[in-house]
Amino acid sequence: MWGSGKKRSKVGKFIDKQGYSQEDLCAASKISRNTISKICNDPDYIPSRSTMKKLLNAIRKIKPAAEVKDFWNVKDYWDI
């Protein structure tokens, strides 16, 4: 199983459950490998608004109803 024994964020757990890799997410979102790694492995990391937008656009190809609040606990999140 992918990610076994690793601390994962909600995004990391989501892609693991869907059978996608971080490389797949990089290609779909056009976000750098380092940033995707941080997003998937650091549950406390909150990316910039533009990065969230790119990432959500990629995730919505898998789950069209995905929202910011599904992945990040931000008080004042933006409608992306």
Automatic annotation (TrEMBL):
Question: Which Gene3D superfamilies does the UniProt entry name for this protein?
Answer: lambda repressor-like DNA-binding domains (1.10.260.40)
Q: Does the record bear Metal-binding in its keywords?
A: no
Q: Which CDD domains match?
A: HTH_XRE
Q: Which Pfam families match?
A: HTH_3
Domain HTH cro/C1-type residues, every copy: 17-68
Origin superkingdom: Bacteria
- Identify the keywords attached in UniProt to this record, alphabetized: Plasmid
Report what the protein is called. Answer: Helix-turn-helix transcriptional regulator
Tell me which species this is from: Metabacillus sediminis
Which classification does the entry list for the species? Bacteria, Bacillati, Bacillota, Bacilli, Bacillales
